[in-house]
Design a protein that fits this description.
It is built from 3 helices and 5 strands. By secondary structure, it is an alpha+beta fold. A 5-stranded mixed β-sheet has the order 1-3-4-5-2.
């Protein structure tokens, strides 16, 4: 008889979130260029903790492709946050080639908007 602990009992499955961003302004507000490999803010009322694994299927403006991202929660904006910020989570993209391509694609779409002083949902 085996007495080893079951891994599945301890390892929670990552949540799967489909996020479709239809406008450049919304992408600008959600994109997180401060993360070296990029990241995205996802509005959500669900409770997350820092470090939680999240699988995101991301659609970008004027792009038919869906981008799968196996990211991690890097910050949490709680309900009723100061400054009227939207409740949700910041997902850090993993350090891999697909994420670098996605970051480049997002920055290509945003172009000159990246240097804007407009406020975003991110830090």
């Amino acid at each position: 008889m085996s007495t080893s602990p079951s891994l599945s009992a301890n390892a929670a499955r990552p949540s799967v979130i489909q996020l479709s961003i239809k406008e450049k302004a919304a992408l600008y507000a959600a994109y997180i260029p401060l993360f070296s490999d990029g990241g995205i803010f996802i509005p959500s009322a669900r409770e997350y903790r820092l470090g939680d694994d999240v699988y995101v299927l991301l659609s970008l403006p004027d792009d038919a492709q869906r981008y799968p991202v196996a990211g991690k929660v890097a910050w949490v904006t709680p309900a009723k946050a100061q400054g009227g910020r939207t409740q949700g989570v910041g997902i850090r993209f993993p350090a891999d080639e697909k994420s670098r391509q996605l970051k480049n694609r997002i920055e290509e779409i945003l172009g000159s908007h990246l240097g804007s002083e407009r406020s975003t949902q991110t830090i």
